[in-house]
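Researcher: I'm preparing a figure for a lab meeting and need a structural model of a single chain. I don't have an experimental structure, so a prediction will have to do for now. The sequence is pasted below. Please return the structure as tokens so I can convert it later.
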Amino acid sequence: MKKLLVFFCFAIFSSISIAQNDLPNADLTTLEGKSITLDDATNEDGITIVSLWATWCVPCIKELDAINDVYEDWQDETNVELLAVSVDDSRTVKRVKSLVNGKDWDYTVLLDTNSDLKRALNASSIPLTILVKDGKIVYEHSGYSPGAESELYEKIKELSNE
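Model: Understood. Here is the structure written out token by token.
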């Protein structure tokens, strides 16, 4: 009986980790109010960075600012695209557009007001940064500390050479 229970638990955890490799296809909204699926927004010809963030999350903004400083070089070298997906709820979502305009981020910014993507990714905290290639999640990192963008870029270069 004990062996059966261990096998059952192993089977469940294995299927969960395998299922998490696929990028969930959540419905999101552009800053202009148009509906778009995550699948349609990802970079078909390369790697997409999906960054879950919020206007009230200081580490999130610091990470996106740090990436913004080098983003153009990253694009030139690896053809990477970044989707900054705000998980601000209905109370704070009105701050997103003005913050993005003030920061002059050169990213595609999408809204996940109902946290559908956040739930689908099982994200317990933000910032959550994932790398997507061919519809698969190939790297995931939660939190931010200065310099983490360099580690992210090394992973992007590694994946773009595969």
